Amino acid sequence: MGSPTRNLSRVLTDSVSRYPQRTAIVFGDDRITYGALDAAANRLANPLVSRGIQPGARSRCPSADGRPLSCLRP
What we know:
By secondary structure, the protein is an alpha+beta fold. It is built from 2 helices and 4 strands. A two-stranded antiparallel sheet has the order 1-2. The protein has a two-stranded antiparallel ribbon with strand order 3-4. A hairpin with a 5-residue loop joins strand 3 (58-62) and strand 4. The chain is globular, with a radius of gyration of 14 Å. It starts with 7 loop residues before the first helix and ends with a strand.
């Protein structure tokens, strides 16, 4: 699967470009395409970037149920 120096972010970015309609995640009966996963990641990352959060910085992000969770901005 390519060079050992490739990270997950790069693999996902490449997959979005090449296969946006392919399934990226399966959770029970739910399926999320690479394109939908990319859009969701951007909805999370873009507000952080607009607030000056730099790549690799730690940030607290609310989860879907409102509880905070730690996440890394790509």
